[in-house]
Structure formats: C-alpha cells, structure tokens
Specification:
30% helix; alpha+beta; 4-stranded antiparallel sheet; 22% strand
C-alpha cells in the first residue's frame, strides 16, 4: 500500500464536519454525521465489502467474508464518525509538515498560533517524519477519522490480496461517541463477533483494555432576581451559589492535577444568570468504588446547598456513561496478547496503559463484546493543536492486517 492511499482517504474524511452535540436529543446528534455516514456507506460498497448497512440512527456495519475453509473466530473493528465538541470541527484545513525538523510548528502565522515544543514535547519524538497538522483554528479529526481510514484501507487491501487468508471480519462505525452515546444503539448481536477492537487510541503503540468509569453530572441552581438597588434580603443570586458549590470540590482532583489511575471532577460547562445557573461536570475514576463515592459527594454538596438556601435551590441529574472494561476483558486476555504480538511483528513497541477516557468498546464489552482499544496514531485530541504523524497512521493500518493474519 502506498502511503498516499490512506493519507488521501484521511484528508477526505476530515473535510466532513461531524462535531457531535449532546443537547439536540437526536441520534445522530448532528446532520454532518449522517452526511459522512452516507459517504462511507457508498465507499464501502465501492471497495467490495458486503452486507453494508446504514441504519436510521447513523450506524454502519459491513462484512468482509472469510476466504478460508477453517472455522476461525469472527473479529470486528470499530471506530467513531463524530468529533469532539471541545473544539470546532468545521472547515478543517489540514496541511502536511514534511520532514518535521523538531522545532515549533507555526500553524497560523497571521494569528500567531504555534504548536510549541515546550508545551507539547511529545511532538519532538516524530522528528524527521511527515506530520498532518491543523491551521490552528479547528481540531484535526484524527479522533477518530484516522481509525476509520485505517480500517477501510486494511479492508481494501485484503480484498485486493486474496492470497492473505483470513476469517470473517466485521466493521462498525458509530456516531456520537464523543458525547458518550456511541454504543446506545449498537446492535451487538447483529454485529456477530467473538471479539472486536476499537481503533480509537492515541500515540503509536498504545494498547488499552481498562478505562475510566464515567458519569455526567448536571446541577441546576435556582435564584431570585430583583432590582439590585432593592435586593436586600430578597435577591438570591444563583451564580454566587453555584460558585460556592463548585469551590467545595477538592481543587487537586481535576484533570490538570491528576494522571495515571487518579480520578477527577471536571467542570466542563457553566452558564447562568441571577435567576438560574447550570454547572455541567464529568466524573471519572478507574476504581469502581471511588467512582461511586465521587457521585455521592456531588449529591452531598447539593444537599448541603439546599440546607443553607432552602430545599429545591439546587437540583442534580447524574447519568452513568460507561464502566471500566477491564473486568470483561481479563477473562479473554488472549485478545490483548494477539495485538501485542501483531504490533511487535510490524515493528511497533506495545505501550499498555489505562485509558484516561473511554471508547465505544468500554460499553460494548459490558454488552458481551470484549473490545480493547488500539492506537489510531494522533496526539492532542480534542484540540486545535491536534496532529497526526503519517508513519503512525500507516503502522496502525499494518497492525490491523497482522491481527487478521494471526487469528486461527
């Protein structure tokens, strides 16, 4: 396979705006995802995949039939079509930095937007490589359009090279993973796999089979607005109460102060007036008991506010999003070993680590489809400083091919 094939495919994919939106109450949550899904459906048919289906919820499934007589396990490869609402995904303008020199990269000279090695030292690991970057105004979309490009290109290669013997392969592309809804309508039984992999990890070599337990938390604080000149003992400023509640959480248990297996509370949104303020949090922890404790702490703080300001002043809505897949993968650890061996075969050093986040595979594992996560190759996801080293993109594609060859 020439690098141009997978690179051009990826560059085409990022031209689609597929930012998800948790506030629409639709599936998929945004129309750009359906537009992209229709394009992918047609592409999968054109390269020769079978049983290509796009359902009403924007989920795509397809099959590459077995070309051998031996009865081997059915493997699936999954990626998500949406991009994170944390940064704009509209009018993505990627460019390729050829032969990266190891120095700062000016993404946008006119607006002085620079990918600085001092802030993002990991990029220096890719000195000498060709790297796809943004123009500094949007995210890139390697999370997870790189994963889709790797899966499609691998299938295309296998179709063209029938001498490579493999069992039945299923692929699935999901909407709305970035807002925790990617597995909401995924039909595991219909997918029909013994196990699967999400191509949704970060840097080259990453291999993950444990992730955060995750919940969303929305707290609404109600106030009373009157003319400020006559607010004495009448006004109740919901924004001040919301701030009081926010600072009661441990200041060191936030994303900017935690790493590895440490969990956190993350304030992702704050919107308010005197009459009503909304705080939106995500809650994360690898340990299930600590995760449950964090949710109880949020409820405790709301009760504390209500005792001080009156019942009903603050309301809370908690929603579990996904759980740590480790407990479902450990009984079938051979599927992790399989990936490690495949990586080594293509010259990639496996880096087994916990996901400080989640993937569709976390929920799918709890629905009976063990689903570890493999690197897609990008770095700085959800950011306008996102980038994708092209050799990492290619190696992920090679890992898929090697996995398929090794399934017996």
């Amino acid at each position: 396979m020439e690098n141009n094939t997978i690179v051009n495919r990826f560059l085409k994919y990022v031209s689609f705006c597929t930012t998800s939106d948790e506030n629409t109450n639709l599936t998929p949550s945004t129309p750009g995802q359906i537009e992209f899904a229709k394009y992918l459906r047609d592409e999968l048919i054109s390269i020769g995949l079978q049983e290509v289906e796009l359902d009403d919820n924007g989920y795509i499934m397809a099959t590459l039939p077995s070309n051998q007589t031996a009865n081997v396990p059915v493997v699936g490869f999954i990626a998500h079509m949406d991009t994170s609402p944390d940064a704009s995904g509209k009018h993505v303008q990627p460019r390729i930095v050829t032969g990266y020199d190891g120095k700062d990269i000016v993404l946008n000279e006119a607006e002085n937007i620079v990918l600085e090695t001092a802030k993002y030292p990991e990029i220096t690991h890719y000195k000498g490589q060709d790297i796809i970057v943004t123009n500094g105004k949007t995210l890139l979309g390697a999370d997870d359009k790189a994963g889709i490009a790797e899966i499609v290109t691998a299938c295309e290669y296998l179709i063209a090279h029938s001498e490579i013997k493999h069992g039945k392969i299923r692929i699935g592309f999901t909407p709305d993973e970035e807002i925790g809804q990617g597995a909401d309508h995924f039909d595991v039984k219909k997918f029909g796999c013994d196990f699967a992999y999400t191509m949704d990890g970060g840097a080259i070599g990453e291999l993950e089979f444990e992730n955060f337990n995750a919940a969303s938390c929305k707290i609404t604080v109600h106030g009373v607005n009157v003319h400020p000149g006559y607010g004495y003992h009448k006004m109740v400023n919901s924004m001040r109460i919301a701030y009081q509640l926010a600072v009661m959480l441990p200041r060191w248990e936030t994303p900017e102060h935690t790493q590895d297996y440490e969990g956190f509370y993350h304030l992702v949104g704050m919107n308010g007036t005197v009459e009503e303020t909304t705080l939106t949090y995500i809650i994360r922890d690898h340990d299930r008991a600590r995760f449950e404790s964090r949710k109880r702490e949020m409820e405790h703080l709301v009760r504390k506010v209500n005792r001080e300001y009156g019942e009903g002043t603050a309301e809370i809505v908690l929603r579990d999003q996904y759980y740590n897949m480790r407990e479902k993968v450990e009984p079938v650890m051979h599927i992790v070993t399989l990936v490690m061996d495949a990586m080594k075969e293509v010259g990639v050093t496996p880096k087994v680590q916990p996901i400080r986040g989640g993937t569709d595979g976390a929920r799918l594992s709890f629905e009976g489809l063990p689903c570890p996560n493999i690197f897609a190759g990008g770095e700085n996801f959800h950011s306008r400083f996102e980038y994708l080293p092209i050799p990492s993109l290619v190696k992920a594609y090679e890992v898929i091919l090697e996995i398929v060859k090794r399934i017996k």
